[in-house]
Design a protein that fits this description.
Elements (H helix, E strand, L loop, with lengths): L16 E4 L5 E3 L1 H9 L6 H6 L1 E4 L1 E2 L4 E4 L4 E4 L8 H4 L5 E4 L2 E15 L2 E10 L16 E9 L2 E4 L7 E5 L1 H8 L1
Antiparallel strand pairs: 1-2, 1-3, 4-5, 5-6, 7-8, 7-12, 8-9, 9-10, 10-11, 11-12
Length: 177
């Protein structure tokens, strides 16, 4: 088996939860998951881990953990607005690591480690759309693996402290008028 990677003292591979991509089985423990996938006929480490998805375990309404490496993840608490509630097409976004603002063209929901998260797809404010409303491929920018907590848009992984800021489309119109 591959060398163990450990990012924190909370890591406990025996508690990790995996989904077998081959048959859908949910397995507890890194060793058990590894042996299960070997049973499907996969022998190399790369092939085995390519057929496993680690699922996060919810610790509370705001936090989950990936036991194999001890990384904590953020969750949007019940009753709080989700990313798609905070940001919609036409709003303006920027991050704490880049002051460049962009106009939101799409908000996508998907799952990572079995948890819901979002991507915000945006274009620079000065980007010009084609007649069909689309933009040049290199105009599109992506902010991925996002969740909302307390009205803030944050990265799914708690080790990433970056934040996405936003202005609602109506606020922008009001400031112009």
């Amino acid at each position: 088996m591959m060398n163990e990677v450990k990012f924190s003292d909370e890591a406990d591979p025996s508690r990790a939860i995996f989904r077998c991509q081959e048959c859908g089985a949910i397995l507890r423990g890194k060793h058990n998951a590894y042996e299960h996938v070997r049973g499907h006929g996969f022998e190399t480490d790369v092939a085995i881990w390519a057929h496993l998805e680690e699922l996060a375990e919810k610790l509370d309404d705001r936090t989950a953990i990936l036991w194999s490496i001890g990384i904590r993840l953020r969750l949007t608490p019940p009753g709080q607005p989700r990313v798609e509630d905070l940001v919609t097409v036409g709003d303006v976004v920027w991050t704490d690591y880049s002051p460049e603002k962009g106009k939101v063209v799409k908000v996508d929901r998907y799952e990572v480690h079995g948890l819901p998260c979002y991507s915000i797809i945006y274009v620079p404010l000065d980007a010009k759309p084609f007649s069909n409303g689309r933009y040049r491929e290199n105009d599109y920018c992506y902010l991925n693996e996002l969740v909302a907590q307390d009205g803030r848009i944050l990265h799914l992984y708690k080790t990433d402290e970056s934040e996405v800021f936003y202005e609602k489309r109506q606020m922008i119109l009001d400031s112009v008028l």
